């Protein structure tokens, strides 16, 4: 795939190039996947900022709004158990989910963007 014209923008090519020398095997993309229209397996190299931890999230929330905000988040995530997985960092909020949280708080009148305990930038796949 060294002759591929899309290799500089391809996450798969970059990942293969960054493999440690002691890795002796990896999944590969065969050259036959390429066509004149491009590559069926092409993924652009985009990063995403993930967030987790809710310790700071409710700092400016009034007491009478806290319970309904929290319940809305638990309902959105599916359960209290999943809510705590996001809080503890087992699950991480995507940029879209962070936007949803911002809109939820905006609906309750809290305009400041939400701040989470931790952030991680990773490749978007």
Topology:
Elements lengths: L10 H7 L16 E2 L2 E2 L6 E7 L10 H15 L2 H9 L6 H13 L10 E7 L1
Antiparallel strand pairs: 1-2, 3-4
Helix pairs in contact: 2-3
Name a few traits of the molecule:
alpha+beta, two-stranded antiparallel sheet, 4 strands
Written account of the structure:
With 125 residues, the protein is α+β, with helices and mostly antiparallel strands. It has two domains: 7-39, no CATH class; 47-124. It is 35% helix and 14% strand. It is built from four helices and four strands, in the order αβββαααβ. The chain has helices spanning 11-17, 63-77, 80-88, 95-107, and strands at 34-35, 38-39, 46-52, 118-124. The strands form two sheets. The protein has a two-stranded antiparallel sheet. Strands 3-4 form a two-stranded antiparallel sheet. α2 packs across α3. The longest helix has 15 residues, at 63-77. It is elongated. The protein starts with 10 loop residues before the first helix and ends with a strand. The mean pLDDT is 89.
Number of domain units: 2
Gyration radius, rounded: 20 Å
Number of discrete helical segments: 4
Terminal Cα separation, in Å?
A: 20 Å
Q: Please indicate the percent range of residues in DSSP E strands (runs of 2 or more).
A: 5-15%
Main β-sheet description: 2 strands, antiparallel
SS-based class: alpha+beta
- Helical content (DSSP H or I, runs of 4+): 25-40%
Main β-sheet, spatial strand arrangement: 1-2
What quaternary form is this?
single chain
Tell how many strands the DSSP assignment holds: 4
Global outline: elongated
The run of helices and strands is HEEEHHHE
**Poorly predicted sequence stretches spanning 5 or more consecutive residues:** none
Quick check: average pLDDT? 89
């Amino acid at each position: 795939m060294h002759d591929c014209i899309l290799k500089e923008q391809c996450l798969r090519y970059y990942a293969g190039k960054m493999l440690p020398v002691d890795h002796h095997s990896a999944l590969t993309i065969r050259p036959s996947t390429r066509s004149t229209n491009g590559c069926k397996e092409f993924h652009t190299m985009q990063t995403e900022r993930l967030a987790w931890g809710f310790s700071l999230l409710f700092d400016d929330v009034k007491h009478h709004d806290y319970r309904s905000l929290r319940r809305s988040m638990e309902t959105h995530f599916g359960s209290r158990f999943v809510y705590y997985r996001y809080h503890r960092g087992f699950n991480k909020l995507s940029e879209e989910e962070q936007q949803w949280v911002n809109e939820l708080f905006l609906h309750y009148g809290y305009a400041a963007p939400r701040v989470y305990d931790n952030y991680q930038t990773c490749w978007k796949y």
